[in-house]
Fold this protein.
Amino acid sequence: MTSHVFTSPLPDIEIPEVPLTEYVMRRAAAIGDRAALIDGPSGRSYTFDQLADHIARLAGGLHARGLGPGSTIAMLAPNVPEYAIVFHAVATAGGAITTINPAYSAEEIQFQLNDSKATVVITVPDFVDTAKEAMKSTPAAELIVIGEPSFDELYGEPMQQTPLDVHNDVLVLPYSSGTTGLPKGVMLTHYNLVSNLAQGEAMLEYHDGEVALAVLPFFHIYGMQVLMNGLLAGGVTIVTMPRFDMVEALKLMEKHAVTQFFAVPPIVLGLAKHPAVDSVDLSALRKVFCGAAPLGGDLAQEASARVDALVVQGYGMTELSPISHATVGEDFKPGSSGVTAPNTEVRVVDDEGNDLGVDEVGELLIRGPQVMKGYLNNPEATAETIDQAGWLHTGDVARIDADGHMFIVDRVKELIKFKGFQVAPAELEALIVTHPAVADVAVIGVADLEAGEVPKAYVVLKPDQQANATDIQQFVKGHVASYKQIRMVEFVESIPKSASGKILRRFLRDQANSS
């Protein structure tokens, strides 16, 4: 069998060794009067000049409080223009930022605050109560609320970028379940993030004066890097939405003549099927870019025909900052995640780690400057994910065709993808097994047209205990975010396991798919 390393059809690029904010804002002065960020619901906006000014003054205020190198600040907020100000002020001051899903329960937020050692939480009024509850028994001692005096008081004298080591200094700590298990802090350096923005610019072309709608959350690596940072770096005006609503999104697309729309498969399904699409003018729309979960070729073509715009997809993961593959221009193949990014090497390997060739199916391995530094406080998980030669094991099963297009065909990893969000079965199992009536449990993802997959629990009850599906669902509901809720429960006599005690999820998935 021949050894095979796939590379990009695009030429390698030179990656600037600069801090992230310097890269993102490098064109700001030339387009200073252009709107950088517009709040969709209210119309509140910042030009590129105003954005640069706010970042510099907020960074100065953070620095004056001693919040710089060695500090971690938590951001608990939906998509609002101030998200970019806080993010880049922390970067300029030399600190790290951990981005938290505002849909999380207080328990889930508390875990992230403790693990990341964040000392300050910045949020919006809607999440103050949850934040206060979560901050108990954590290093986070200060709560700052956007839109209230505590936020305005943070501002200080404008400052320049704090000197830092772009290769080693961690800027972002988003949390990911990786290929399995509980959420882990993904350490992304300035160089990781700049590398991926530069790679993305070689693949995702933006014309002068473009407008994009940002409905995908900035706390998630896709929204953070491809939308917030990537669009600002490209000089694109960003219209933010704090929560997704199909009808409102369509109205904003018409109002602002949106040219670029970033989506996940359930939103593409809406573009293909939702009746409201017929009542708005989407003639400015040039491209819909889909990520976070595989998009079927038929659905992409149906949506494309309905909105008269290219519907393409890419592939990435938090640990890759996030892009490793994307569709370039109009070089689209149904079901393809596009081609390999510049400066990136890819292998497809069998179960023994042997390299496979064109159109052969195996696990996708990736190596490049966008690969994370590692998992925070978790060298074991880092070693399991990135081998000694620097190859990141994605846990996804793929094939690459003769034209270099990559297709995700299955998942080695156990994660459930609900509307593009990661749901770790192990996290839900660890919770459900604490129910007094439960003896054993296994959780899998079951295919769902709207969500992609929904979590289903197989539950074994203790001999002397009783519980119904609603009991289990309500128990879970009190502890986790809405997208992690158990949608289906089946009571069984036993959970299929290997000799070593590992749950045989593939067996359960096959059983679910055949029923």
Observations:
- The radius of gyration is 23 Å.
- The first strand starts at residue 6 and ends at 7.
- The mean pLDDT is 93.
- The first helix runs from residue 20 to 24.
